[in-house]
Design a protein that fits this description.
This protein is of the alpha/beta class. Helix content is 25%, strand content 24%. The chain is built from 4 helices and 18 strands. It has helices spanning 36-44, 53-62, 64-79, 84-100, and strands at residues 2-5, 9-14, 19-24, 30-31, 103-104, 109-110, 115-116, 123-124, 128-130, 135-136, 141-143, 152-154, 159-160, 165-167, 172-173, 178-179, 184-185, 194-195. Helix 1 crosses helix 2 (53-62), helix 1 (36-44) runs antiparallel to helix 3 and helix 3 packs antiparallel against helix 4.
């Protein structure tokens, strides 16, 4: 089974070797089996389920969420290379922004278990380090304020509610943290916390 992307790139699955290769007019075949753990957790859905590359490619074709994660993982992998491969990753990344209307910048470090609630309006800067089982929902931003080069570090099992923002430099968010919808974070958050940004609705009679 194969999956094509409009860049002259094809992903081919070999049932005999249980490996996949990326093929392009510009590059030779590259085995990307090193991404198997990511795909197992994020596209198959659980490491308790049986893994197969055929299932990965099928879900990447049918689901917008899986399609984005699949191609972003490959682009981010190629981004660690040099020359033509890195250039190809940048082109692929730009195409994904246009297709999905969201941007997870190449170079961002996101551990396995990355979950996207809805593919709308999400922006994640490249200078971030995110742990396992991170969930992000629509219209969320993780960005830098350019006050320093220190990364934003987010622990394991963190969830961001819709329309939330994490803005700053050198911010650390611990493990098992939940950010409520429309939360704004610009400072460290300890582990095992729930963050709610107070909002007030005022209703007046006409």
């Amino acid at each position: 089974m194969s999956l094509k992307q409009p860049l002259g790139i094809s992903i081919h699955s070999d049932k005999m070797t249980q490996k996949i290769k990326i093929t392009s007019i510009e590059i030779k075949d590259i085995e990307v089996s090193c991404l198997k753990d990511y795909f197992h957790a994020e596209i198959i859905g659980s490491k308790d389920r049986k893994f197969s590359w055929w299932k990965v490619l099928r879900r990447a074709r049918r689901s917008k969420r899986c399609n984005f994660i699949f191609w972003w993982r490959i682009a981010n992998y190629l981004h660690t290379k040099k020359g033509t491969l890195k250039s190809l990753s940048n082109t692929l990344g730009n195409r994904m922004v246009s297709k999905h209307n969201m941007e997870v910048m190449l170079g961002a470090e996101i551990d396995e278990g990355f979950v996207i609630g809805h593919n709308v309006g999400i922006v994640i800067a490249k200078n971030v380090k995110i742990g396992k089982n991170f969930t992000i929902r629509q219209n969320c931003t993780i960005g830098l304020d350019d006050k320093s080069n220190e990364p934003i570090v987010i622990g394991d099992n963190v969830e961001m509610g819709a329309n939330s923002c994490i803005i700053g430099s050198g911010i650390t968010i611990g493990d098992n943290v939940t950010l409520g919808a429309m939360s704004f974070v610009n400072k460290d958050i300890p582990s095992d916390s729930i963050v709610i940004t107070k909002k007030e609705t005022i209703i007046k009679h006409k």
